[in-house]
Amino acid sequence: MESLLRLSREMLAAGAETEQLESGEEELVLAEYESDEEKRAASGVDEDEDDFEEEHVTKIYYCSRTHSQLAQFVHEVQKSPFGKDTRLVSLGSRQNLCVNEDVKNLGSVQLVNDRCMEMQRSKHEKKSEAEEEKPKRRRQEGQAACPFYNYEQMQLLRDEVLVEVKDIEQLVAMGKEARACPYYGSRFAIPAAQLVVLPYQMLLHAATRQAAGVRLQGQVVIIDEAHNLIDAITSIHSTELSGSQLCQAHSQLLQYMERYRKRLKAKNLMYIKQILYLLEKFVAVLGGNIKQNPNTQSLSQTGTELKTINDFLFQSQIDNINLFKVQRYCEKSMVSRKLFGFTERYGVVLPPSREHPKLTGFQHFLQSLQPGVTEAAPSAPADEGEARAPRPASPLMHVEGFLAALTTANQDGRVILSRQGSLSQSSLKFLLLNPAVHFTQVVKECRAVVIAGGTMQPVSDFREQLLACAGVGAERVVEFSCGHVIPPDNILPLIICSGPSNQQLEFTYQKRELPQMMDETGRILCNLCNVVPGGVVCFFPSYEYLRQVYARWEQSGLLVRLAVKKKIFQEPKRANQVEQVLMEYSKCIKCCGQAAGTMTGALLLSVVGGKMSEGINFSDNLGRCVVMVGMPYPNIKSPELQEKMAYLDQTLPRTPGQAPPGKALVENLCMKAVNQSVGRAIRHQKDFASIVFLDQRYARPPTLAKLPAWIRDRVEVKATFGPAFAALRKFHREKSGPS
To answer: Is the pTM of this model over 0.90?
Structure first.
């Protein structure tokens, strides 16, 4: 009997030891989870009912693709007659607006977001006695609340923002000076603002819109640079998961559950087990095993499979799980943030112990997933003073995005299973086929939506894929197009059908790699560089084709002939090198303009859809001639494009005499890319440039119709090179004046 009592006491002591949390570890344990229905039943009131809410005035929401484009718009408002009387607020991401250097230096967008959320308490957090002690504990542990998250100072910052129009840079400078967070201070200014400037993501993603406090009911929305609106919505709501991410998420979550099993409520455990089951089935459907290292797992089957959402759910054997509830749980419990904090504190590996025998088999596997984790004391919290590289965001966050995508209607999306030899290289990708499903809410709530852009042609995509599918009748759509600011004779668009040696120019996949086609392109550029002053920008369909042409020119000696008149620059593949290349290109043109020598400027070899085909201004001497080599059709063999084409052929009506919707999509994607690239040269009223299309296919009436009107009305088709060269020489002599 005595021995039995002693054993009982030891077991109780062991249990108490297991449940005891280390200092500050409460932050890692999930609070008791209640569904929305349970909350409403328990309280009888809506959770936001008691919150004070400032009334929103009627406003205009202006959005564009990049922060630089938004800043440009704000500067125009500042210069306008309405600048002093307009209450304008610029919204941005934490990465752009954070003034806390410790947080900003984390680098990764997700890490910045997570650390910011950790450092400021949730609005609806219950203020129990235990909760009131948390800030003290955080401060003792070196995790103090953000000094810039000061309510009074942020209110003062909000007032300053509304008094005078300021762009994001000015807002950040004010935040530093006032020691107030510009990210939250700018959001406080939304209700009273008349004009809200924000990036695409914040407007087009419903959850981000809600989190930012953006309310569209009865308001006016202007979407600028809308030529890529459909692609933007599609990419925002499409997501991809690699086999490594699935295995990482499963391993981390399993360890988390095992460590805190006795602290977690039954409902939390149930949902965590459901997520683990989902991850296991996702790996299985790829042909892998969740318990093995994804880097060393070879898959018996390779290739790409496309599935409807329902077929994928059935094949994965997860059709019996309510994904809406799992998604809601992830969102409300913030399990991915807790898991991220857990892996930050302990690495990914827990030590083997009597309580966790299951985990010992994962030791080396987990370390192979996270090579930065060492075997020495993996469970010890990282030293606060130790400098360490930021860890990547929790893979469970990517899983949450994929689960949310799987709740899309069956007909509106597809799941792509890509098996690439090893599990780590394989992936699950959700492809959104119907962007209108997310755009519909914006259209329904707003008083008016303005879709604007400098080169919107062809506009049929917007009408058919967005507006018609969003339930907007033709009677509600008003199309307005105006001419360009430049005089018509300031541009010379030419379609050249053959080169100096009478080689027909048709850069199809079958013909463009022929040596004679590459040589003819080089000869044409040599002639152009002889008569065009300043800068010439030449766009190629792809990086690979540019590489092939450049290698051919080196071999044939054409590169040396080109370099006599123009210094040659190539577009870099890395984004951080673009600025340097542009500076050197600009400097070369400026120097050549001042010094009367044989070299007259520079030639920039670029790629359609690359870093220099959009958002870069080649004004004045930086772009006196733009050359388009071939037609940049997208890869027709891409499974994503093929599925999109099939979807459009099935859902959109076919107009008699017109190409099928799927084929029209391919042509429209090509011409939108062309229009964006050639528009880089004309940037203001007194600018002038020649535009050269090197491909006889541009002369086809359906293709010509998809050029912007200001180019189409002036375009000249030249069957041979001689007349084209004469026209170019005459144009640049007249425009440049006497040399």
So the answer is: no
